[in-house]
Amino acid sequence: MLVPFIRTLILYILIIVAIRLMGKRQVGELQPGELVVTILVSAVASVPLQDVDIPLLHGIVPILTLMAAEVILSGICQNHIKFRRLLTGNPILVIKDGQLLQPAIHRLRLSLDDILANLRLAGVFDLRDIKRAQVETNGQISVLLREDKQPATCADLKLKPSPSGPFYTLISDGRIISDNLKSVGQDDAWLHKVLAAQGVSSPKEVFFFCADPYGSTLFCRKEQI
């Protein structure tokens, strides 16, 4: 039983390294080459896992080969635009000035339902509001609304917004995250002072607490379950 355990652990770690080398994209954001590598790595790793009589190297070597191929291709794609376009393709315009471009849609083999569903997920329910929409190389649809349908910004309204920054989680399920506390320029004394103002005596009573560098906070006390 020890041998299958060790083999599985080695392959598990190796696959994590392989996926990390491909970046932090989600499955729906993978380029064609990255998706192929992901599928092949899974298939190759399953063979030595299912049969312990197969040498482990028969799984490790193909995975390392795929990793090397992906790293090399990624480097080439970064430096050569034509090769990148050959490998991943180009974005294709499917809607222009509220009109569906049927030849492009047929070429992509997309159904009208697919396009409308992606537009709804992007918050667009009226084709007439769209100036341009195109299918990106990862299959997602990006939308540019007409100027009169775009949300108003502070600059449009001539407003001066209050400064704000990213929120950092300072307490998660009763545990203080010290690195994030430093990121907002505060210390433990400030944290306990803020908690005391909320009627909390210990971080263990807090389910979620976050703050930004400008003093804005979000607080959620633990509930008794």
Task: Label this structure with key terms.
single chain; 225 residues; alpha+beta; CRO Repressor; 3 domains; four-stranded antiparallel beta sheet; 9 helices; 8 strands; flat
Architecture overview:
Strand 5 (168-172) and strand 6 (175-176) form a beta hairpin. The protein contains nine helices and eight strands. The two termini are 40 Å apart. The strands form two sheets. A four-stranded antiparallel beta sheet has the order 2-1-3-4. Strands 6-5-7-8 form a four-stranded antiparallel beta sheet. It is flat, with a radius of gyration of 25 Å. It has helices at residues 2-21, 32-50, 57-79, 81-88, 102-108, 112-121, 154-157, 178-183, 188-197, and strands spanning 92-96, 99-100, 130-135, 141-145, 168-172, 175-176, 206-211, 217-221. It folds into three domains: 2-86, no CATH class; 92-149, 2-Layer Sandwich (CRO Repressor); 168-221, CRO Repressor. With 225 residues, the protein is of the alpha+beta class. The protein is 48% helix and 16% strand.
